[in-house]
UniProtKB/TrEMBL annotation:
It is an enzyme of class 1 (oxidoreductase). The lineage of its organism: Bacteria, Bacillati, Bacillota, Clostridia, Lachnospirales. InterPro entries: Gfo/Idh/MocA-like_OxRdtase_N, GFO_IDH_MocA-like_dom, Myo_inos_IolG, NAD(P)-bd_dom_sf. The gene is idhA_2. This is Inositol 2-dehydrogenase. Residues 2-123 form the Gfo/Idh/MocA-like oxidoreductase N-terminal domain. Keywords: Oxidoreductase. It comes from the Bacteria. Belongs to the Gfo/Idh/MocA family.
Amino acid sequence: MVKVGIIGAGRIGKVHTKSICNLVKNAEIKTIADPFMNEETDKWAHSMGVANTTKDYKEILADPEIDAVLICSSTNTHSPISIEAIKAGKHVFCEKPIDHDVAKIKEVMDALKDSDVKYQVGFNRRFDHNFEAVKNAVTAGQIGDPHIIKVTSRDPEPPSAEYVKVSGGIFLDMTIHDFDMVRFLAGCDATEVYVQSAVLVDPSIGEAGDVDTAVITLQMENGAIAVIDNSRKAAYGYDQRAEVFGSKGMVATVNDTQSSAVISTAEGVTGEKPLYFFLERYMDSFAKEMNCFIDAIENNTDTPLGVEDGLKPVIMGLAAKKSVEEHRPVKISEIQL
Ligand SMILES: NC(=O)c1ccc[n+]([C@@H]2O[C@H](COP(=O)([O-])OP(=O)(O)OC[C@H]3O[C@@H](n4cnc5c(N)ncnc54)[C@H](O)[C@@H]3O)[C@@H](O)[C@H]2O)c1
């Protein structure tokens, strides 16, 4: 049984707590830490069967009974807490992104060099049943050589301008998942990024220095071209689809819905909207990624997504930002490695 400490009891900390308590074998949460731990969260943690709560994550790092930590706190804490946890000999599952700064991710890489702890980054969409099926078809050669990869990723609601100011902006907070998806489906890295973008959803996002609508084209190392389209607001809900077109055919997904019922009447034909947002759409993938992390610890195998997989999408995000600022294609090699 792997004993776990959770650092950060916000949205994603609660998701991983629920997964471990209900869906992950061979893991048990001993302690949850959050500086804003209050009576309500404490009660909730105990109702989930968690033994301890604390305001100080250092208690988790100092606990010899705890084998692994999940870093689910605000993004600016990910790289420093990763390094502290690695030094304390704890296996680390770190939510995305590890950091906005390449140099700080390199510090995490350096800390990992002298240790044998497992490190996994939270790109959960790789574990989604739809995207896994697309990947499997590509890997099995069913569509031949990939030529065009298309990822559609649109949120149902924009975040606040306040959030955008600290999140690193659309490319480091939202598109980062799509950059990972493109790497996953292509099976290789990107060499160049070009972005067309606009503020069409919420002017306050523009005033905060970000964009809310973007089409990103990427040249992949294997010759394929990838296209990601993002919007911070799709009126019909969370739009999450992928397609790979290749020399022998194409594989594509549709959105998950509550049911597949289609109602046909004299007025028209209607179906259900996509599941609302990531908490509805991706719960299975969160549990699956966690099972993989725990398995890697138990069986002493590599995690499916290591620190390099955390670094590459950040570099792609920084290239995308530069492309917007300078309105030109940006080579990945231009971003300091
Ligand atoms: N993989 C995904 O799909 C996904 C989804 C949501 C969020 N995230 C990532 O997870 C992270 C958290 O996002 P969220 O939506 O849960 O945010 P949130 O604001 O709901 O929760 C963050 C929590 O971390 C706590 N915290 C801050 N500093 C801390 C510290 N030093 N020690 C312990 N706790 C601390 C805060 O008090 C807060 O409760 C972000 O980096 C985000 O990018 C990933």
